[in-house]
Amino acid sequence: MKKNSISVQLVSRLTGHRSGIYALESKKDTDIFWTGSGDQVVAQWNADETSDGVMIAKSTGIIYSLRYIPENDHLLIGQSNGGVHVINLKTNAEERLLQYHSAPVFYIAYLKKYELVFTLAGDGTLSVLSSKDYHLIKTLKIAEGKLRCFAFHPVKDEATITCADGSILILSIPDIEIIYRFQAHTKDFSVNTVAYADDGKFLLSGSRDAHLNIFSTDDYSLIQSIPAHNYAIYDIAFHSSKKIFATASRDKTIKLWDAKTFEVIAKLDKEHNDGHTHSVNKLLWMDNFLISTGDDRSIIVWKLKTTTNTN
């Protein structure tokens, strides 16, 4: 009987930022990715190289979010004062500064199908923009607290937004209406991250309560609540082809999970894997590379290896 086993090896540790790294984004089908930090710098890196990064932008505030718009070759940079910088990557010059929020922009999402950009802010507002010229289409006041994360359903015209009060809401697209809201985690414990399984049947969320919750997307009923980490979960990232996902936590660890059984495959930490020394904030899969960033100011490039054992 053949059985696949998965291992992860540290390839490189990239340094240069002078503060915690909160934002991570990639250029699809390349080895290029970008990081944004509390040092107000956006840097460009190559996952397959160990050379230093290149600064491509300097912000006027802490950088909390990044989003690449391939049709324009623009990088959108969400910062702590509510602004979104539009950087032309051909020239590395700022083309515009969008000021649709009065609080930190924690997440930026892009939906090519409808040419829409979504920005989530700490003032509880969602702004919807045209990806063609970034004009404001609609703003919704969704909550009193911070809005943290946004995910598109892979099949339906729906999206998910997470809130600081522990709730999750479901949004219809393209009309941008709230169609459902439910308490997903411990009340007043922020839901920091959310992700859909590849087939859209499950919604996974991670919270300050350190639990990984799994919901059926038929009715958003809770299927399983897993005490996944010792402290807050900050990110969930599904691999695009392999049936695995990763979680990042304030407890300084990364965990790899089987996407079918929701069992832990591997745990990456400082003691056993020379991992992060502080909170792990963001994760990004790039083919067989897993990129992780944290409060220790470092970027770690991990390589995924799959081996087949015959019993």
How is this fold's topology laid out?
Elements lengths: L1 E13 L6 E6 L5 E6 L3 E6 L7 E5 L4 E7 L4 E6 L4 E5 L4 E6 L6 E7 L4 E6 L3 E6 L5 E6 L5 E6 L5 E6 L3 E6 L4 E7 L7 E6 L5 E6 L3 E6 L5 E6 L5 E6 L5 E6 L4 E5 L5 E5 L1 H4 L6 E7 L2 E6 L4 E12 L1
Antiparallel strand pairs: 1-28, 2-3, 3-4, 4-5, 6-7, 7-8, 8-9, 10-11, 11-12, 12-13, 14-15, 15-16, 16-17, 18-19, 19-20, 20-21, 22-23, 23-24, 24-25, 26-27, 27-28
Describe this structure in words.
The radius of gyration is 19 Å and the shape is globular. A 4-stranded antiparallel β-sheet has the order 1-28-27-26, with no helix packed on it. Strands 2-3-4-5 form a 4-stranded antiparallel β-sheet, with no helix packed on it. Strands 6-7-8-9 form a 4-stranded antiparallel β-sheet, with no helix packed on it. It starts with a strand and ends with a strand. It is about 0% helix and about 60% strand. Strand 12 (about 125-130) and strand 13 (about 135-140) form a beta hairpin. It is mostly beta strands and about 300 residues long.
Question: Tags for this entry?
Answer:
311 residues, mainly beta, four-stranded antiparallel β-sheet, 28 strands, 58% strand, globular
Number of helical runs? 1
Q: Helix proportion of residues, in percent?
A: under 10%
Radius of gyration: 19 Å
Assess the beta-strand content as a share of residues: over 45%
Q: What string, H for helix and E for strand, traces the elements in order?
A: EEEEEEEEEEEEEEEEEEEEEEEEEHEEE
Described by the principal axes of the CA atoms, the overall outline is globular
Structural class: mainly beta
Q: End-to-end distance, in Å?
A: 5 Å
Largest sheet: 4 strands, antiparallel
**Lateral strand order in the biggest sheet:** 1-28-27-26
The low-confidence parts are none
Tell me, rounded to a whole number, the average pLDDT.
Answer: 95
Total E-strand runs: 28
